[in-house]
């Protein structure tokens, strides 16, 4: 018996979406390396069919949660393994968002400070990324103006260490299906509606703590997995 996914592939055959950069290409199907959580393995998928028949898991919906932390209000904690971003809003309280994590974001952990914010930001892909994508036959622009097709989405928060731009970003995405996944490129991506929500709450100078692969949690932080947390609902 042909599975629903196989039927969908047949129906969409010939339709190729270069979704990684929000561009349409009817000649070559764009492949992306993503993590299959059901089978617990990496696989290459055709972006013209991925998640066209399902939504982002509800666990990645924005919601208020109880946490255990001594980190100050306004701190952002990103757990790259769990694909969650927490914004501390009060004593042992936080807003939790689902995120997608690119290669650049997944490989990094540590502390940083938000020193710049931008609405509908211009995207300047690093030279290393341009070279890597060129090997796949994808020519990236040196810069791309902000807009609905821009990979940085509606908002961007720029992470610095001292006065040095780390080149890491918390940003929106034109690929909503990518929330909860590991991607081949990019930093920390959020749904546009979520990054807009966070953008309005976050102040310049806010601390960002990134919990990288293999780390259980940030020092002085853990989520309080408790049924009482449901009392705080979601925004």
Task: Explain what this protein looks like in three dimensions.
- Mean pLDDT is 75; it is low at 1-28, 35-40, 49-53 and 225-235.
- This protein has 235 residues and is mainly β.
- The chain is 13% helix and 33% strand.
- The chain has two domains: 4-46, no CATH class; 58-226, L,D-transpeptidase catalytic domain-like, CATH 2.40.440.
- The longest helix has 10 residues, at 192-201.
- An eleven-stranded mixed sheet has the order 9-13-12-11-10-14-6-7-8-5-15. It has a two-stranded antiparallel sheet with strand order 1-2. Strands 3-4 form a two-stranded antiparallel sheet.
- The chain starts with a helix and ends in a 12-residue tail after the last strand.
- It has helices at 4-11, 103-106, 127-134, 192-201; strands spanning 17-18, 23-24, 31-36, 41-46, 63-69, 76-79, 84-90, 93-98, 100-101, 110-119, 155-161, 164-171, 188-189, 207-211, 221-223.
What labels describe this entry?
235 residues; mainly beta; L,D-transpeptidase catalytic domain-like; 11-stranded mixed sheet; two-stranded antiparallel ribbon; globular; disordered N terminus
What can be said about this structure in brief?
By secondary structure, this protein is mainly beta. It has two domains: 4-46, no CATH class; 58-226, Beta Barrel (L,D-transpeptidase catalytic domain-like), CATH 2.40.440.
